Each structure stands twice: as C-alpha cells, then as structure tokens.
Amino acid sequence: MIRVVLPAHLRTLARVDGEVQLEVTSPVTQRAILDALEAQYPVLRGTVRDHGTLKRRAFVRFFACEQDLSHNSPDAPLPEAVAAGDEPFLIVGAMAGG
Amino acid sequence: MSKIRLLVGTRKGAFILTSDGTRKKWDVAGPFFGGWELYHLKGSPAEPDRLYASQTSSWFGQVIQRSDDGGKTWYPPGTKPEDLMGPDGAPKGESNMFLYDASAETGKPLTTHQWYDGSQRPWEFKRVWHLEPSLTDPDTLYAGVEDAALFKSVDGGKTWKELAGLRSAKGQLWQPGAGGMCLHTIVLNSGHPDRIFVAISAAGTFRSDDAGKTWRPTNKGLLSKYELPDPDAEVGHCVHCIAMHPARPNVLFMQKHWDVLRSDDAGESWHEISGNLPSDFGFPIAVHAHEPNTVYVIPIKSDSEHYPPEGKLRVYRSKAGGNEWEALTKGLPQKDCYVNILRDAMTVDQLDPCGIYIGTTGGQVYGSADGGDNWTPIVRDLPAVLSVEAQTL
Fold it and tell me: Is residue A98 part of a domain?
C-alpha cells in the first residue's frame, strides 16, 4: 500500500485522520497516486491539481524521501521507498511567506 | 415569532448568527471550514434550510459546500456515495469543477479576454465570488466566478455548466481591475423569470432576457472619466454592486467604483444619484425590504483609501431613491474607524421594521433592527468579513 500524507485542510475536507493508504498499480508515479487518491476521495478533485489541465496547483508541493519532487514529470517513477510503502508521499501546502 | 439567520463569510471561515425576531440577542456558531476563505454563503428562498457556500483557498482551489439542515452539517454536493456514480463505481465529485465552455454548440464562446498589456489572455478559473440560488427551485443556483463568467447548476450544486453567452457580450474587451475580473452580483426577479442581471468588475452590468442564453451590456450613462476615457464605452466600467427591490424590477441601484447610480428602465440607461454623499466611492448597495425607494450605501473615502471618510463609519440612507442622503451613525464608531465594508457585506432582512446588517474588514458585524436608525455590534472579533446574507425564517 502506498502511504500519502495530506495537508491538514485536505484531511479535514476528506474527513480522514493521519495517513491515507492507497492501492496503486505499478509503476508508482505522481499521476498514479493522484488518480487513486481522487478516486477514493472525490472531494479532493481539483484541490491538488487543476480540474481541467490536471497540472499541480501552484501552491501545492510534492515531497518524498527528503526530496522536492514537485517539478518532476507526473509520469516519472517515484522512489522505490515510496512504491514499497516504506516512505510516505507528502502533499504539502506551500509556505505563504510574509 | 420569526427568526433571523445571518450567514457570514470571512477570510478564515464561515459563521452563522441567529436571533429571534427581536434581533436583540444573537447566538454565534462557527467557524465552519476554518482557515478557508468563505467568499459567499446564501440560502435558497424556496427551501431556507438549503444553504450553499463558496469555500476557496489560494492553495487548494474551489470547494462548493451545501447544507440541507440550515447549516448544522455540510457536505460538498455530489460526493455522497449515492450521488452520480461514475463508471468506476465512485462518485464523480464534480461539484468543484468550473470549466469554461469552449464548445461550438453553445455559441462558439470567446476564449480570451484583454490583459493589462493589451494582449488577449485565456480565461482561467480562480474562485466563486457569489452564489445566487433560484427563487423557486432549491436545486437550481447560479455561481459568479473569477475570471468573470456565470455558471448554473440544476442538481443542487453537483455539476455546473457555464452560461457561455455572457462572455460573447464583448468579452474580448473585458480586462481585470486590481481586484480581479470577477462576476460578483447576480440579480433575479420572480416576475421576470427569464431575466437575469449580472455585474462584473471591471466590465459592467449585463442583462439576459432569455434565461442566460444571450446577453448584452447595460451600461449607458455610466461615466468613469479617469479610468475609462471613452464616455460611450459599452464595457469596461467598474461596477461594484447592483440591487433591486423585488416589487419594482425595472428600478436598479448601483454602487460603481465612483458614483452611485439608478436605472428606471431595467438597465437601459443610468443616471447618477450621489447627491450629498460625502464620497460616492463604495462597495455595497442595498434596498429596504418594504420601501422600494429607500436605499443604503456606505461611502468610502476613495479608490486608494478604502476606509470611511474622517474615520467615521456611516451608513447613508436615502428615502427618496437617491440624491438626498442622511447619515446613520447611532451605534456605529464615529472616531478612529478605518475598516471597509465589501460588496457582499450589507444585507437586509424581511421583518417589519426592516433589519439591516453590515460586516467589516475589521471583523465586526453590526445590525440595526429599525431600518438603520440604531445599530449594535452583533459580534466584534471575527476574521475580516467578506459577505453577510440574512434569512428571515
């Protein structure tokens, strides 16, 4: 199972506590995780990536294994530790600054 | 005895304020959707416990919320398991999907508008500014969005379809102002069910007489000499809010960027009624529930100084339909007050005497149970208030 950590606001919206566990078929990519996440929690459609373009929203970041993967291709395989469920895939709200 | 429910949208959540008909003691519930911007909440006139809310965030986008029990519980419509099952057996979750119509079948709508540098730029959805439920059907409602467009749902907010004809009304000339290019006002009238007025910053007012299929600009008489040098410009006017009394559907009142105006011919022409106001810049405008010629505005010092003149928060009332205005000050701060009242943050209830309510960017909600003669703070320390709507139950 793939582990996904949502930001607090999206956990509230999806009505979940803690990590989300998802079944994702190989290869495990950003797109595959987000497809599975939105299928399981339809209310999250449009909140992580744009409804029309399916691009990552500007102030949402993707982290895993202490790396910022936000600019990687959505179809690039994620680190093996994420695919194996050893490390979570983190969806993060960007810092607002100020 | 009747009851009043105020739906308050703020920068950091929604609040519901309730009182009995005396409007003296208020209960405060919330925050709902804490941490999110609640641009607007409104109840269905046909089914008052059906509420809709626009929940939005720069991080996570747009969420439409719906309550079927007067605000006790909420859910994004279309996300219940029994709703709109998709081919994979999961709900489609389309209630947050506002996609501009680019199909040829519905009039080949324009796909670009004017940008600051004079170039054309594609429409890009940002958020829902205003929700306007149908007067007769609780499952039908309209959404005014940024970038400016009008959407309609006929299934209680589960899915949305753009009324794309609006963008054909010289949409290529619309250009965002500093506050964004938003459709913020939607006016319906039960006597003319196919007629819809909308107002857009900074494009103007528009009217449809065929339930939203086709539209035309209705801005004749609007003058904005410093922002718009062409006195005959059909679009490009920064209309901040328009209001109508339901018993007099051909009379509209407008708070423009500068100027307060009135139309007596359903928007065909406008004339200024600023009269003796200390400033004719402002955001909201409202009409008394039982006196169609009694109008309220809140003057703000200027376009660059968004606070009351002289630090005195004054609601101005005209009982003559404009031009002659009186300051309503009792109970409102008359020194060192530098808050603003945004376009959707003034509303009236339907009781007699008519109640009127305003919400400020300083987080106060003030109410008057006597048409504005006397005001009291209902709550003082909310986040910045974006909208206030009153329901008379």
Answer: no
The pLDDT tens digits of the residues spanning A53-68 come to: 899 999 999 999 999 9
User: Whole-model pTM?
Assistant: 0.96
The interface residues of chain B toward chain A in range 17-46, judged by CB-CB distance below 8 A, are 35-36
Residue B72: what residue type? Answer: K
* Interface residue A27 vs chain B (CB under 8 A): no
Please say whether the beta carbons of B238 and B224 come within 8 A: yes
- Asked if the Cβ–Cβ distance from B79 to A39 is below 8 Å, we say no
| Domain B3-392, second-level architecture | 7 Propeller (2.130)
Domain boundaries, chain B: 3-392
Q: What is the DSSP letter of B203?
A: T
Whether residue A65 is contained in a domain is answered as yes
Closest residue, chain B, to A48 (C-alpha): B60
Chain B residues within 8 A of A38 when measuring between CB atoms: 93
Smallest Cβ–Cβ distance between A46 and the set B88, B90, B97 belongs to B97
- 3-state class (DSSP) for residue B332: coil
Is 0.90 exceeded by the ipTM? yes
Are residues B129 and B144 in contact, defined by beta-carbon separation less than 8 angstroms?
A: yes
